[in-house]
Amino acid sequence: MKAKFTEGAIFSHICTMTFTSMAGLLSLFLVDLVDMYWLSLLGEIELAAAIGYAGSILFFTLSFSIGLSIGCAAVVSHAIGDGDKHVTRELVGNVLLTITLTTSLLALLVVSYVSPLLEGLGAQGRAFELAHDYLVIILPSMPLLAIAMACGGVLRALGSAKEAMFLTLLGGFVNAVLDPIFIFAVGWGIEGAAVASVLARVAMVAYGLHKIIVHYALLAMPNWTTLVRDFKNYFATAFPAVLTNLATPIGVAFVTATMAQFGDSAVAGNAILGKLQPLAFAGLFALSASVGPIAGQNLGAKQYDRIMETLTGSIRFITLYSLVACLALALLAKLIVYAFQASGDAEKLILWFCYGLSAMFFFNGITFLTNALFNNLKAAQYATFFNFLRATVFTMPFALLGAKWGGPVGIYVGLFVGAALVAGLGLWVAYRKIDRLQLTVES
């Protein structure tokens, strides 16, 4: 069991891990966008608004699952860096059991409160009914999503970026094939989209567990004597990572509720951008999942200079990627408006984002990076702090001021300013943290 990231060119590792992870994410994000496109063909503006409301709640469960997978990747990469396969096998079994139980309880809780959650977001009438029908089908499958993502985390911790990519590609493929069948051929509409997503999660879990159990033999049955120890070690990293990731959906929910005051068209435009953004900036989301194992293995091997190199190389990647993505959005702006039959506030919001406000994702990418490093350098409290800062102090007042100044577009201007401020602060702290690690070695 080799710690492959402790040698070789760091920027090469960053690019390899990120682009392979990005391919899988692109398939999932593209399916989400195609979902929105298929549903827009049904001709109900309330459908797009319903996806926006439901998406805010699903983003909460997704972010919770991402936090658990980040914790999983971090502790497993540390174990791999230490080189004890037996301990790693037991750890993986104990962690997967913990994730299953945790997400099952959360899924039950969220399903029980779907209606008040939607009402709190401002959903009403037909949009409320459609969002409710969608959520009660897809929410119970949250444990499947969490286990699939945890399997991806284990594969990335092993350095098996291609297999982690295939896991998400498989989910995207299954969803893409079943979506038009269930939405149109069977005639289930938005409920068909939910069923397709659930079956895609089943496929991802089957593939991920097969790889971990059969191919790598890296899963032992949960060991009750080590379960408590591993539970504590895992949640020491996973709990702050979960809190870090939950901050984002809190901010998203606040923005959705703020948009709701301008009507279904504004909510629909925000929902379309909510599906478009992760697709356009998939490389930045993939980077945040990829640098963790690189930093984690080098932390385990005490090669702190390579951690600093990971930070600087990642910033270079973010800069180049953001330039390409923003240019592509500017060129495709009118086509996006036409494809989704957007008008009114929805059209205005999409055009403003594509023609310049999309640059906020350069700053979001910096925050994604620094949070991923904090989570894997045993400083997860910093990631939690900065993500909550971004979702509250640097989102809520800026969104409210922007709404008063310029309506739906003003909200996005406020988000841009807030993202820039918190990114700069987080980057400064990350440099200082890694500098201190290097100084302990030199002294």
UniProtKB/TrEMBL annotation:
Top-level taxonomic group: Bacteria
GO cellular component assignments: plasma membrane
Compartments in which it is found: Cell inner membrane
Family annotation (InterPro entries): MATE_fam, MATE_MepA_subfamily, MdtK-like
Molecular function terms, GO-annotated: antiporter activity; xenobiotic transmembrane transporter activity
Membrane-protein topology: Multi-pass membrane protein
A Pfam cross-reference name: MatE
Membrane-crossing residue ranges in chain numbering: 9-31, 51-79, 91-114, 134-155, 167-190, 202-221, 233-256, 276-296, 317-337, 349-370, 382-403, 409-431
Entry keywords, A to Z: Cell membrane, Membrane, Transmembrane, Transmembrane helix, Transport
NCBIfam families named in the record: matE
PANTHER family, per database record: MULTIDRUG EXPORT PROTEIN MEPA, SPORULATION PROTEIN YKVU
Protein name, UniProt field: Multi antimicrobial extrusion protein MatE
Protein species of origin: Saccharophagus degradans (strain 2-40 / ATCC 43961 / DSM 17024)
Lineage of source species: Bacteria, Pseudomonadati, Pseudomonadota, Gammaproteobacteria, Cellvibrionales
